[in-house]
Amino acid sequence: MKILKITKNRGYSPNLSIPYGLLLDEDALWFETTGAIDENTHVNDQKAPEMKRALDEMQDEFDTSFFEDYVTISLKKSRKTAFNWLAKMEKIGQIEKLEHGRYLKVQDHKVNVGEE
User: Fold this and answer.
1) Out of 2, 30, 70, 85, which residue is the most buried by the measure of CB atoms under 10 Å away?
2) Which region among 2-11, 59-68, 93-102, 105-114 has the lowest average model confidence (pLDDT)?
C-alpha cells in the first residue's frame, strides 16, 4: 500500500492534508483508493504516540479544555499543538465534533486494507 497526502495546492481542497491509502491493481496498472486512513498506524511519526496517548487519556466524550490541559501540562506541549492535534484527529476521523468545545471519540476508525 502507498500513502498519498496532498500537502499543497493553489485553491481550496477538502482533501488537503488527509492521508489516503492507495493499492495497485497490477492487472490494470491502476491505483485504487482505500479511503482516508490513519497515517499514524502506517508511518513512523514521533508525534503520533503523544497524540494517541492524549486521546487515550480522554473519556469517550470530552471537552477541549480537558484535552488542552492534558497536552499542555502532562505532555508539556503548547496550546497551539493541542488545537492542531484536535483538528488533525477530526480530519482523519478519530474524533467527531459534537458542538463548540465538545468532541466524541470514534470507536471504529481502523481502515482495513482492501475493504471499501
Assistant:
1) 85
2) 105-114
* Domains by residue range for the chain, with CATH: 2-39 (no CATH), 45-105 (1.10.10)
**Mean pLDDT over each residue of the chain, to the nearest integer:** 83
Question: Which of 39-43, 97-101, 108-112 is the most confident on average?
Answer: 97-101
Grid-cell match 500500500, residue found: 1
Between CA 46 and CA 56 the distance in angstroms is: 17
3-state secondary structure of 39: helix
Question: Residue 40: its pLDDT value, please?
Answer: 63
pTM of the predicted model over 0.70? no
Distance separating alpha carbons of residues 36 and 58, to the nearest angstrom: 23
Please say whether the beta carbons of 90 and 55 come within 8 A.
no
Tell me how far apart the alpha carbons of residues 8 and 4 are, in angstroms, rounded to a whole number: 12
**Sequence-ordered list of residues with C-beta below 8 angstroms from that of 37, at least 6 positions apart, any chain:** 3, 19, 20, 21, 92, 111
